[in-house]
Amino acid sequence: MKHGQGTLYYPDGSKFEGTWVKDVREGHGVYAYPNGDMYEGEWLNHMRYPRMLTHAHTLFTLTVKSHDHFSSCCGNKFVKTPIVRRQTVMVDARPQQPLFAFGVIADIQYADIDDGYNFQRTNRRYYRSSIELLRNALDSWSKAAVRPGFILQLGDLIDGHNKLLAASDRAVDAVLKELCSVDAHHVWGNHEFYNFSRDWLLRSKLNSTPQGSQKEVGSNVYAYHFSPYPGFTFIVLDAYDVALLGREESSPGYREALTLLRRFNKNDNLNCPPGVGLLQRFVMFNGGFSKKQLSWLDSVLTSTDERHEKVTIACHLPVHPNSTDPLCLLWNFDEVLAVIRSHSSVVCFMAGHDHDGGYYFDEDTGIHHVTFEGVIETPPDSNAFAIVSVYEDRMELKGSGRVADRVFFFPQSCRS
Ligand SMILES: Nc1ncnc2c1ncn2[C@@H]1O[C@H](COP(=O)(O)OP(=O)(O)O)[C@@H](O)[C@H]1O
Known about the structure:
Number of domains: 2
Shape: globular
Order of helices and strands: EEEEEHEEEEEHEHHEHHEEHHEHEEEEEE
Strand order of the largest sheet: 12-11-8-19-20-21
Bound molecules: adenosine-5'-diphosphate
CATH architecture of the largest domain: 4-Layer Sandwich
């Protein structure tokens, strides 16, 4: 990961020399283009600073917090030097008050059991205290200057261990009781399917589809969209639409997913990743989108493009390889990237699943890909949640604990 002062040489012959914050160009830097052009100035979220300020009338300074525990070399081309702890950037200050705000939390994985570890035994898991961290998040959201209008719960609400202990109902009731005071939009993750069938989930309180849009994609797919504020749409996607999880072994859906998975994964244990690199994503605890869901997404985005809206997508599995460990990537990530890249309205893609979190700004499209740090691997004395304040030209994410602060500027093409 690039963090601090350094120089990166790009394959096209260009070069950036300046400051990085968790792989993102931020602060002062010089970009040399292959044709000899140069830009020296301030950078934020990978973007040249003046480009983002074309609409600004008044300016104020915003201190962006950065974590100080990442500082390693990227191949042999990144020169590591001391890291930046804080930086001051300038942002458009016209809309002092956000239009609205929302909360985000991922991978709570609550279970009333003692602490444990992930499969590789590299990260500790705090099953029992994860519900306490959810309470911290709810308390913080309730005291925010602009209270979140809704919460994006990015999946894996309770842990698969509950199934083994016949405690699934008790655990999900306990967590949903905490969430009853907020308008939560629930995304489904692999642990939902360890505990419950797809039919059960569709009939449960974990189905947060708004009234009226129940059958838009098809009766068995859990995907919908909603608009909390004029000009802004949020889309919840079903990452296990094509998957072994949640399907009866005798069903056509299971057989179709098994055929696909077996093409890439020859291991007896299908949770054991095949090969290296991006191939690792072909494991049973991941899934993908059907053609039906992709074409529904395409049609929703066609409408949001026409209305010049800003779209945020919520999904359990990340879809950009640079925003996650490849082990956690959606099976047909390339197909969904092709769809969202063909539309101008998508500004942000939010996911969970990879508990270490990740972030990548796709410069070509202006889409921010954020993977949220998981509550389950967050020590009881820390936190992992965010509040996102939405303005006309940007979203400001204020992270707590392991979640870093970020500013997501909207691409020019989205601005009305
Ligand atoms: N390399 C692996 N080989 C075999 N099984 C694995 C491997 N990695 C994970 N698993 C299994 O896959 C499931 C999901 O893995 P886990 O790391 O617990 O995912 P999550 O982060 O969603 O909790 C678990 O049942 C785990 O034991």
